[in-house]
Amino acid sequence: MSDGESLDEADLIAGATSVYRFLRRWSGDPEWAEDMTQETIVKAWQSRGALMHRDRATAWMLTIARRLAIDDSRRRGDRLQLQHDSMDCVCAAVPPPQHDEEIRDEVRRAMTAMDRLPPRQRAVMYLTAVEDLTPREIAEIMDLPAPVVRSNLSVARARMRSMLSNEGSPRS
């Protein structure tokens, strides 16, 4: 790691929350997501010398999680995709606002629209909107060129705007 800083337990804990949400959203299986999150933490700790920038620890851990998840799905002979039925873990990530129910309805509408996107666009949009990652970080996580990520994000945003505007304004 550059500048002499090393990955510590606090970095792992902070990254683990994002890893769990991502894997839970990806698989729809909370137990599997928990197991894979634990494997990710172990792998990250064992490989901590490979992390070049401590401030990118979460994105690095998401990359590890994605690769472990793909390897696990190949061993089991199935194919993973972001699931439509795991919105609760995302809504739980939204801090409780003053108008809790109204905001949760808006989040549900957005997540429903996101669920209708093609898998790659859905993953890029999720990592941007929920995990607050940059296109460069997403490119590393998903093993895609950054221009492809930006293109997918642009198309995903346009599709979501269209879907949400076609629903009309929320009820008051």
What features would you describe in this structure?
The protein contains 8 helices and no strands. It is mostly helical and 172 residues long. Residues 82-92 have low confidence and may be disordered. The radius of gyration is 17 Å and the shape is globular. 68% of the residues lie in helices and 0% in strands.
Overall number of strands: 0
Beta-strand content = under 5%
Radius of gyration, rounded?
17 Å
Shape call:
globular
Nutshell version of this structure?
The protein has 172 residues and is mostly helical.
Describe the protein's topology:
Blueprint lengths: L8 H19 L2 H17 L10 H20 L10 H5 L8 H16 L3 H11 L5 H8 L3 H21 L6
Q: Which key terms come to mind for this protein?
A:
172 residues, mainly alpha, 8 helices, globular
